[in-house]
Amino acid sequence: MSSVEESLIRTVGLHYTYQAGTRSPVAALRGIDLCIAPGDYVALVGANGSGKSTLLRHLNALLLPSAGDVRVAGWSTRDSTHLREIRSIVGMVFQEPDSQIVASVVEEDVAFGPENLGIQEDELSERVDWALRTVDLSELRHRASHMLSAGQKQRLAIASTLAMRPRCLVLDEATSMLDPAGRRQVLETIRTLHHDGMTIVTATHNMSEAAEATSVVVLAEGCIAMQGTPREVFAREDELRALRLDTPPAARMAHIVAVQIAGFPTDVLSVGELAEAVAARCAVPRG
Amino acid sequence: MNQREAPIIAVQDLWHTYLAGTPLETQSLRGVQLEVFAGEAVGIIGPTGSGKSTLLQHLNGLLRPQRGEVYVRGNALSRRDAAVRGVRQSVGLVFQSPEDQLFERYAGDDVAFGPRNFGLSADEVRERVRSAMEAVGLPFSCKDRLTWELSHGQRRLLALAGVLAVDPLVLVLDEPTAGLDPQGRRALLRVLSAWRKAPGRALVLASHNMEDIAEICTRVYVLSHGHVLLQGTPREVFARDDVLAPNGLTVPAAMAILLLLKARGCQVPTAALTVEEAASAIEAVLHG
Amino acid sequence: MAESGEFELLGRMTIGQYLPTGSPLHTIDPRGKLFVGVLLVLTTVATGSLLGLTLLLITVVAGFLLARIALRYALSGLRPLLPFILILALLQVFTIPQRGAASVLWHWGPLIITDASLLAGITLIGRVFAMVLTLSLLSFTTTTTELTHGIEHLLLPLQAFRFPAHELALVAIIAVRFLPILAQETERLMKAQASRGADFGRGRGNPIRRTRRLLPLVVPLFLVSLQRAEDLVLAMEARCYTGGRGRTHLIQLKARHRDYAFVAALVGIAVLAVTLSVISADHCVQGWLAGML
Fold first, then answer.
1. Contact assessment for residue C96 and residue C114, using Cβ atoms and an 8 Å cutoff
2. Does C204 touch chain B (CB under 8 A)?
3. What are the chain A neighbours of C239 within 8 Å (beta carbons)?
4. How far apart are CA A69 and CA A81, in angstroms?
5. Nearest residue of B to residue A244 by CA position?
6. Which residue in C248, C253, C254 has the most chain A C-beta atoms within 10 A of its own C-beta, making it the best mutation to test that interface?
7. Is A263 on the interface with B (CB under 8 A)?
8. Which of B62, B188, C224, C254 could be cross-linked to B57 through a Cys-Cys bond (beta carbons 3.0 to 4.6 Å apart)?
9. Residue C152 burial (CB < 10 Å; 0-12/13-18/19+)?
10. Separation CA C146–CA C32 (nearest Å)
11. Per-residue pLDDT of chain B (288 residues; tens, 9 = 90+)
12. Between C32 and C251, where is the model more confident?
């Protein structure tokens, strides 16, 4: 992990309690220490109720800590004077496609964010054009927003966030309500953005998605249970199972095969790597 | 599965036009043939817009056949006097995200909604609620908990219990595991498999999740643009990547891996439905 | 087939339908159309004169011709309202006070029709038609986006007086955007509850029972709406929405000569209509009616 000065987002001793002061408070986060450097791609995994969404909402000050501190580019989220900067730097895409689209026309929804920032007309147009190009929705810019497919709607949500020129994109289970085609489109967009330098933080149930990250953080009951590169984390299959989580299918297969075949690698992450490992050990192809 | 018995549900040459007579008119079903026999778990896969939801809504009479016929236990649903109420009791339909439809304050009352609608006595209702909740793995004591206090996964199971309480012969589900975490998904699939085991029952499942289909279905229909492209056992259907891929459909991850290995030159058999089967196939090849 | 129709009805619902025919009327600045629309509606109320109303009706019909939209399309929208209009008109005809009446045209016991009351009845019908047709024409020729932009821009000057112009326009935009979504949700809920044996009742039982039968729909719909509202607020906050002050706009409305000419022409017509009412041209009509019958 990087030093304090290098981090884009940093949480120290983050605690959060829902319904604090009522008869049934719920401690959703219990001491999270997280450091996200520029260019990182962090996958946040954990069972429902582990605190993933709650944690993500602290990263752009939609929620403020009950205890502890969250800093974005050095500014504390508790400091209301820098709220605009923080929310410009950290953009967020939510799970439900329909519930984050404001305007009835695609290009107007993309413009909503920068309009709020008071960006002047020329730059406004430029940002809208660039954002739509990046997510490949330029031909649909005049389409009614409710007539898009779910995958297109999520890409629209990404464009609307990109128009604010963020340095970090946070995605809260953005692909879980999509069909396979939609999911593929959104993941492709995320991959491209990361390749071009965007910091990505994504909460997901899909372990193949998580395997593409540079670091995986496993959350359980409000605490960080495991943390490391995908290779490190997914190798610890038994611990993950105990936390009610899966590993990517390729990793699972590698583990099973390794029991029978001596020397077979267990730190396989992707289908490609599994194919390499098998091909390397394949008997001479028959025929 | 006894093929000589009559199917519980039979769909014959079913056509449906959505919003007929308006500028937005589209043909959602074109001559669909489908049968569901007792003891089966029938999977329906297809890209978005293939007509899956429309088809499912014909199975319990929400939509009446515009052209063609749907028979449920021998009753033709196109007839004006078709006993639709009886059909609703024989065929239980669970929509996507069923936890969105919960409305009662107390969990048990919501499960009781179905049996009460069908005019059962208070004692019968109570008994149905108890067995339905147990079938989904929720303790009967949950009936006195506030609906909104239950977790997301529990609310989905509760909604399922609400349909099971009607004691249907066929359970029809639209994307049952969408949005669930891995543990929630496993729990739900276990409940469905166990429920189906009782004699005379059948399951119909429409899903994008190929692993779900591979895991619990005995027969699969592939729907595209409103008609059936392909049908067969999961093994038979998923072997036809030549039909699935052009229609935007994938195969279960385990099989996809084997297909990739085969493309790379390894002589692996590719007919694996689960991760375990695929791993065995790989082991067999590596043993030489 | 009754049931499939029952559930699909919501899918056919079109609020403020927009009919793109590419006519000149479609390209007029929405602010102009909004202003003129409101002006004409107010004028129909202000002008008590049948001549004035006739002038307004002719104007609206001319508008339909200009917009290349069949008048009968708009009239078919009036059909469900007809019974009410007729009842109200008949009430006018039979019960209007005798002030200004020149002669009695017909009577049977306590029911009296005078020339003044007959005129009042006809005037009422004319008023309703004029108002409904004006508003229909407005919605047929202006997209909801144009309408909300128009409202927002018209109200902008008021922001100087701390009037929440953008907030109100946003409420309108979002409401319109979510109506089809809520309609779909309602349909889904009805189908889900019907699948569990719910019968949304064709008038069986007393009002209390019938209302209770709607609970399985109302509660989840309310909850879903609240959830969506909450989600939307979060998304808007995440994109730095803090109200209308200091916001810039991607869509700039630019008024051209033809827009000003349009507004001027219609202001003229409105003034004429009111003038006709002021100079009480109706005495002539009353006399003519009395002479005829």
1. yes
2. no
3. 87, 91, 102, 112-113, 116, 160-161, 164
4. 16
5. B183
6. C248
7. no
8. B62
9. buried
10. 11
11. 455 689 999 999 999 998 776 666 788 999 999 999 999 999 999 988 889 999 999 999 999 999 999 999 988 998 877 788 889 999 999 999 999 899 899 999 999 999 999 989 999 999 999 999 999 999 999 899 999 888 888 999 999 999 999 999 999 999 999 888 888 899 999 999 999 999 999 999 999 899 999 999 999 999 999 999 999 999 999 999 899 989 888 899 888 888 888 888 778 888 888 888 888 888 888 876
12. C32
Q: Subunits touching C (CB < 8 Å, at least 3 pairs)?
A: A, B
How does the average pLDDT of chain A come out, rounded? 90
8 Å CB contact of C236 and A125 = no
Distances (CA, A) of C93 to A252, C98, C132, C161: 84, 11, 21, 46
B100/C216 touch (CB, cutoff 8 Å), yes or no: no
- Put simply, the answer to whether B88 touches C12 (Cβ < 8 Å) is no
Give residue for tokens 């229609």: B247
Residues 6+ apart with CB under 8 A from A217: A34, A42, A43, A44, A45, A224, A226, A227
Which two tokens mark C193?
A: 């509850």
Closest CA of chain A from B55, distance in Å: 18
For residues C125 and C85, give the distance between their C-alpha atoms in angstroms, rounded to a whole number.
7
* Chain A residues within an 8 Å CB radius of B146: none
The secondary structure of residue A5, as a DSSP letter, is G
C228 touches chain A (CB under 8 A): yes
Residues of B in Cβ contact (< 8 Å) with A271: 253, 256-257, 260
User: Which of B184, B249, B266 is opposite residue A48, by nearest beta carbon?
Assistant: B184
C146 Cβ contact partners less than 8 Å away, ≥ 6 residues apart: C30
Chain B residue nearest residue C215, CA to CA: B103
- Residues 64-123, chain C: which have Cβ within 8 Å of A? none
Identify the weakest region by mean pLDDT among A89-98, C263-272, C282-291: C282-291
Q: How many CB atoms lie within 10 A of CB C120?
A: 20
Query: Do residues C190 and B100 make contact, with C-beta atoms less than 8 angstroms apart?
Result: no
Q: What is the pLDDT of residue B177?
A: 92
What confidence score (pLDDT) does residue A180 get?
Answer: 85
In tens, the pLDDT along C20-56 reads: 788 888 889 999 999 999 999 999 988 877 888 889 9
pLDDT, tens digit, for every residue of B161-182?
999 999 999 999 999 998 888 8
Which candidate in B44, B45, B48, B209 is best for mutational testing of the A interface (most A CBs within 10 A)? B48
Nearest to A255 by CA among B282, B256, B260, B183: B282
| pTM, two decimal places | 0.83
Q: Which of A36, A32, A28 is nearest to A68 (CA)?
A: A32
Distance, CA of B67 to CA of B251 (rounded, Å): 33
Answer with the residue of higher pLDDT: C268 or C200.
C268
Q: Centre a 10 Å sphere on the Cβ of residue A13 and count the other Cβ atoms it contains.
A: 12
Domain boundaries for CATH 3.40.50.300 within chain A: 9-230
Give the A window 111-150 contacts with C, CB below 8 Å.
111-121, 124-125, 128, 145-146
Q: Considering only the beta carbons, identify the residue of C177, C227, C235 that sits closest to A146.
A: C177
Tokens of A79: 């400091």
B132, B126 in Cβ contact below 8 A? Answer: no
CATH homologous superfamily of A9-230: P-loop containing nucleotide triphosphate hydrolases (3.40.50.300)
Cα A64 from chain centroid (whole Å): 20
Contacts of A107 (CB under 8 A, 6+ apart): A128, A132, A141, A142, C250
